[in-house]
Amino acid sequence: MKVLITGAAGQLGRALKETAPAGITIHAVDIADCDLTDGTAIAALVSNAAPDLIINAAAYTAVDKAESDEQTAHAINADAVAALVTAHRGKLVHVSTDFVFDGASSRPYRPEDTRNPLSVYGSTKAKGEDHLRGTDLLVRTSWVYTAGGANFVRTMLRLMAEKDELRVVSDQIGTPTWAPGLAKAIWGLVAANAAGAFHHSDAGVASWYDFAVAIQEEAHALGLLDRSVPIIPISSAGYPTPARRPAFSLLDCSATRELLDDGHTHWRTNLRHMLRAEKHFG
């Protein structure tokens, strides 16, 4: 099976290439290969690649920047999805985000729950979802990170080495997701010929503060940090940002886990995997 992967240089794109099952031929592209703000270029890409399946791992993910750059965010997160659907008769696997929800739920969000995004990023990702057909596959995820990527874990490692104290938001709740685990789940859903909406994150629950504390503890144990600094929990109000984040964006991944029997790996276990790999980038 020939699979076209967009966003191939990103965290998930790299993980999809590294975890591809036997029998998969990958045609991987990133921004240097195709301008996803250009519908004509997208049509040409799909025509030339002639894939059996497309996995759209590309996205405009600069959440705060999107508030002042809505046009570009919409072009990549929404219009490009429409162009891929128009150009490709086969299945499209589209990766979306927990930010399509408003965080007002008292339980983890199910795939069929009503969306109510709070930010331009979330809104444009929701609009991208709206272009999918019933035969396509939507996979929502949260807080993605991997070794060598641009993400919260690596930012924390840098700041922990530079600062004498960190203040981290403690009232935004969700779950970190290791990109290789997400990639394997996507390949598993593809193999199962799944269609419709599914959720995948690592197991467990965390605030950004919890995540930061775990990063420092695990990194120190592995020798990635030679000291520990105080980490102080603060409210979202104490760290204002241009884009509003959902206070609670835990995803209900039960349908995905039941279909794949994936073992329910806890986020802290995958954090250790990532940090071990991160030592090679140090």
From TrEMBL:
GO biological process terms, semicolon-separated: dTDP-rhamnose biosynthetic process
Oxidoreductase is among the record's keywords: yes
Taxonomy, superkingdom: Bacteria
Signal peptide: none
EC class (word): oxidoreductase
SUPFAM superfamilies (UniProt xref): NAD(P)-binding Rossmann-fold domains
Pathway: Carbohydrate biosynthesis; dTDP-L-rhamnose biosynthesis
Cofactor(s) needed by this chain: Mg(2+)
Catalytic activity: dTDP-beta-L-rhamnose + NADP(+) = dTDP-4-dehydro-beta-L-rhamnose + NADPH + H(+)
Molecular function per GO: dTDP-4-dehydrorhamnose reductase activity
UniProt keyword list: NADP, Oxidoreductase
EC number annotated for this UniProt entry: 1.1.1.133
Cofactor annotation comment: Binds 1 Mg(2+) ion per monomer.
Gene3D superfamilies per record: NAD(P)-binding Rossmann-like Domain, UDP-galactose 4-epimerase, domain 1
NCBIfam families: rmlD
Family, similarity comment: Belongs to the dTDP-4-dehydrorhamnose reductase family.
Protein name (record): dTDP-4-dehydrorhamnose reductase
